[in-house]
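FAQ: What does a multi-protein file look like?

Like this. Sequence, then C-alpha cells, then the next protein.
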Amino acid sequence: GLGALIGIAVIVVDETLKRSTSSMRLPPLAVGMGMYLPMSLTLTIPIGAFIGRYYDSWASRAAVDGDRKKRLGILLATGLIVGESIYGVIFAGIVAGTGKEAPLSIVGDGYGDGAQLVGIAVFVALVFGLYRYTQLRSERDFAAMSGSLK
C-alpha cells in the first residue's frame, strides 16, 4: 500500500543522498519508526541516543578500561529494551486476561498526576542508587585487582 510506496521513496532518496553527499542521509529505519510508533515512544529514541552518545564519550575518556565500560553500557541498554519488551507482553496478557484497562492500578484515576510524579521520583532514585552501587563495587573490585597485581 501507501506505506510501502513511502518506504521505497525514502530508500531512493537515501541512496541518492549517499551518492551525492557525504554528510546528509535519510535513514529509512528512522523514517519508518517515526511513522509507525506513537509520539510518546518516538520522543524517547533521540533522548536515549543523546544519553548513549554522552555515555560513550565518557567511557572513551575513562583512564581505565574504556572499551569494557562501553560494552557494559551496551549490555545495560540491551537489558532495558528486553526487559521492557518482556514486561509489555506480560502486561498485555494480564490486560487480556482480566478485561481491565489498568489491571495493576492500586489507586483510582484521581491520583493519576501524583502517581506519575511519584513514579518518576522512584525511578530516578532507583537509577541513582543502582549507579552508585555499581560505581562503588567497580572501584572496590578494581582496587582489589590492582592490589593482586603487585
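And here is the next protein:
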Amino acid sequence: MDEKVDSKLSDITPLPLPFRILFTIHIGVLFWLSIVYLLTRWTDINVLEVLKLSYNSRNYNTLDPTQFRTSESSTTIKVDRSENSLLIGGIFSTLLKITTRSVIGYVVYLPLFLTKEIYDIKEGIFSLLLKFCLKSVPLVVLYLVFRELFFHSKHEGYGEIRVKSTVKRVLKGHINLDTMRTNDILLSDSCVSYNRVLNDTMNAFWTLFFDSSTYSNYLEFYVLPIPSFIRIEQCCREYYSSKQRQHLLNLIKYSVGLGPNVLHHAIKHISSRTSDDLKEEKLQELHHYIYLLVFINSTYSFIWDVKMDWGLGLMNILPWRTSSIYEPLRPRGSLLLPSRVVYYIIIMLDFMLRYVWFLVPLSRMIENSLIRTLAVCIFGNESKPSNTFLIEVLEIFRRFLWCIVKIENDWIKEIDTEQAAFIDLDLINKRS
C-alpha cells in the first residue's frame, strides 16, 4: 500500500495542472483588460458601443432589472465613451480577485509540496492525507476562480450580468444576430482558442475522481471539439437566418478544423495496438493526412482572419479581387490603430502562430539545430511530451491580437452603417 501511495505522490509537481489552467485564465483576463485599455487610449473606438453594453440603465430599452437579467438586452441609445473607464475598472477588479485567490491557493499548496519533497513519508495514513490535499487544493482554487468569473457575485452589475447571459447563450450554440453579434462572436471564438484549456480542466477533474493518471483518449476526443461545434451551430443559425454564403463558408472552416482531432484520436488508438506489424506505416500515413488537413485549415483560417474578420485588403490580390486599385490594408481614413506598421506586425504574428505547427515536419526535412530545438520545445518528440501549456499560451496570444483588429473593424462597420442611415434620412427630408 505504501509503495502505491508513494508512486502516486511522485506524480505531484510544483506547478500542477489546475494552476497552469489558472495561469491561462489570468492571461486571458489580462489580455482582455489590455484590449479595452489600449483601444480606449490609442483610438476613438468605443468598445462598450461595439458590445452594446452600458452601465447606465437609461441606455437600454427596459428599466426593469428582472427583465434585464432574463433577456438579451442591448443598448438602444449610444453609449458615452467615458463609460469605458468603468469597464476597465471592472475587468481590473475581477483580475485582482482571481489573482488573490490563486496566490493564496498556491501559498497553501507549496508547503505541502515541499513537505512531500523534503521528508521521506512512510506512514500510509499521512501519505494518503497529503496526497488528498495536494490533489484537492489546486482544484478548490480552480473552482473558486470559476465561481468568481461565472457563477457568483454579491452585487451583480451590468458587466457581470452580460458575461453570464452571454456564456449561457453561447454554450447552447445560440447567437444574438440582431443586436449583440460582436459580443457573442468574441466569446465563442475565444472559446475555440481555449479548447485545450477546456480539455486540461476535464483532465484535472478526471485524475481527482479516478485512480488513474491516464486521461481517457475517448473523453479527450469528445471534449476538444466542443467549442468548434458551438461555432458550427452558430454559423448554421446565421446562414438559415440571413442566407448569406459567408456563414456557410465560415461553417466549412470550423468543420475542416475537426479533421486533425479525428486523426489524432486514430493515431493514439493505433499506437496502443503494439501487435500490429503495419503500425508504423499506418501512423506515418495518418501523420501525412494530419499535415495536409492542418495546412488547409491554417490557410483557410488565416485568409478568413485578414479578409473577413479584419476587413483588410491584403488578400485582394487573389482571384476574387474586385477593385482595380490594390490596397493591402484599408483606406487611410478607415485605419484607427496608431500606425500601419501595427497592422503588418499583427498580420505577420497571426501568420506565424497559425503555421507554428510546420516546425515539426520542417525539423525532419532540414538539419537545423534551432528549428529542431523549437519544434521539440513546443511539440516534443519520442522522449519528451509536447508542451501543451506553451501551445495554449501562444494560441491565446494570437486570439488577443485577433480581437484588437476584429473590434476595430466592427466599430468601423457600425460607423459606416450610422453614416449611411444618416444620409438616407437626409435624402428623405430633402425630398419631403
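Q: Is there any per-entry metadata?
A: Some entries carry free-text notes. For the entry above: The two ends are 91 Å apart (CA to CA).
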